[in-house]
From TrEMBL:
Signal sequence interval, chain numbering: none
Domain of life of the source: Bacteria
Transport as UniProt keyword: yes
Gene3D superfamilies: P-loop containing nucleotide triphosphate hydrolases
Keyword RNA-binding: no
Gene Ontology MF terms: ATP binding; ATP hydrolysis activity
Span of domain ABC transporter: 2-252
Assigned keywords, A-Z: ATP-binding, Nucleotide-binding, Transport
Protein name: ABC transporter domain-containing protein
Alphabetized InterPro entries for the sequence: AAA+_ATPase, ABC_transporter-like_ATP-bd, ABC_transporter-like_CS, ABC_transporter_ATP-binding, P-loop_NTPase
């Protein structure tokens, strides 16, 4: 469905020389590689997490895949099309939903923007009615259609942006930070929607997000980009297994325990009676669990992986040390 080979994007950036005359009349430029020889592919009905630090090249890559930017070199095919040719048949199959960019007309109700989108993408009356009903039902936002966009909260606007972007049922969707700035309830609602939408439409999705919980909940495969180059392309479970060095053991005590007894097990990662959290190396986990059961009176004990943020942080620390 998506094929990228040796994709490179170089920008010419004005370099200030500290002299007004030179900066105006004799401008100096430097070459900045936003993306460097990136290669990957996606199959139909695949959802991939595409992550990396700020400036890594994520959004640049997505803009090339959607035809917004022209690459400096390399080959890109999306559903058999060359994106930057911007053929109508191609544009009707893709959507680019950005959490930091509004498509909706600010002063008008969302329904008016949807009518415009319907006309642009030549959506039939019946298809329009069915799609609006289904999308707003999935997002539980039917009551927002006739409210001016400027009166909506950030979470409500993001729901309307999703309805707008997916109105014509694209087969390929690029989500760029769809949950940015949202509260935890709105984040959860957007995640559930993306999962349900992909399940129903069998669409191919690339998801970028700085909220790595989005990626963990939605993607089985992960592509990590750093300084314009791919540094990991594989399953999410593999990277968790390889870089999750510790487990979080959470214990709820039945009664107060001497702190010396607690420290016999491990120095607590967090301790607010009656709850204790230990961060324990995977290799010694069985013996530590045994020691907990022999030493501490508890009513509940759970073992959890490190957060996905900590795992990716460990990955990048290893990359820096290479």
């Amino acid at each position: 469905m998506i094929s990228v080979k040796d994709l490179t994007k170089i920008y010419k950036v004005h370099e200030r020389q500290g002299n007004f005359i030179k900066d105006v009349l004799f401008r100096k430029f430097k070459r900045v590689e936003a993306v460097r020889e990136v290669s990957f592919s996606l199959e139909r009905n695949e959802l991939v997490g595409f992550i990396g630090p700020n400036g890594a090249g994520k959004t640049t890559t997505l803009k090339i895949l959607s035809g917004i930017l022209y690459p400096t070199s390399g080959q890109v095919f999306v559903d058999g099309f060359t994106p930057f040719e911007k053929k109508p048949a191609f544009l009707k199959q893709i959507a680019f939903v950005m959490g930091q960019r509004n498509q909706l007309i600010w002063d008008l109700p969302t329904r008016d923007s949807l009518q415009l989108q319907k006309t642009i993408y030549e959506v039939s009356d019946l298809e329009y009615k069915n799609n609006v009903q289904e999308l707003t039902s999935l997002l539980d936002c039917q009551n927002l259609l006739d409210k001016p966009v400027k009166t909506l909260s950030l979470g409500e606007r993001m729901k309307m942006e999703l309805v707008m972007g997916l109105l014509y049922r694209p087969r390929i969707v690029f989500f760029d930070e769809p949950t940015i700035g949202l509260d935890i309830f709105s984040q959860s609602a957007i995640r559930d929607f993306i999962k349900e939408y992909q399940s129903e439409t069998k669409s191919t999705i690339i998801l970028t997000s700085h909220y790595l919980e989005d990626v963990k909940r939605l993607a089985k495969r992960l592509i990590i980009i750093n300084k314009g180059s791919i540094v990991y392309n594989g399953s999410l479970s593999n990277i968790i297994e390889q870089y999750s060095l510790e487990k979080h053991v959470r214990v709820t005590l039945d009664k107060t325990v001497n702190e010396t007894e607690i420290r016999r097990i491990n120095v607590p990662f967090m301790y607010t009676h009656p709850k204790i959290t230990f961060s324990i190396k995977r290799g010694v986990l069985p013996e530590k669990i045994k020691l907990i059961t022999q030493t501490l009176p508890f009513s509940d004990l759970t073992v959890e992986d490190e957060t996905i943020e900590d795992i990716i942080k460990s990955f990048f620390e290893e990359q820096r040390n290479k």
